[in-house]
Write the structure tokens for this entry.
Amino acid sequence: MSNTRFIYFTRGGNTEALAMHMNLQVDDSSIDKLEGNTFENVFCGFLRAGRAAMGNRTEEVELPITDIDENDTLVLLSPIWGGRWPPAVNGALEKIAQLPGNNKVYVVGRCGGSASTNAFDICREKLGEKFVAYLRVSDSDAVDLNTNEFVNDFIHLIQAREIPEDQMLNRS
């Protein structure tokens, strides 16, 4: 039996709240935090984090779950910094791409602008056939997750293990 595995990276807790909300809505799911450099304890950490992301840096990370079945569905959630993924997420994408089997990967990015399309192009490139669909969640979308139609539609896709015609599911 395949399970849904939520893996999230967060800097300030917003992505964690989104991951927990989605995890509660999906049967047979689990949730794990991806550990990596959040740049929080560094002078001007926010600026340094954005610079590292915009430089497409990759951080060597360990996936937080080791017992991934070849049929498990993975949902990767992360903030998007400066239109790119944090270095830890770039590392996770590389690890996920190397997993044996036919895992399907849904990606959720938290961001404030349309420049995030670059980040999802990176997912498509790194994950290849494993990449199923993505959702961009803005700050205004995250105000009330229970009533957000885009988040709820995406949860439905994950539960049904559906592959949408268009890989992008959001309003932009």
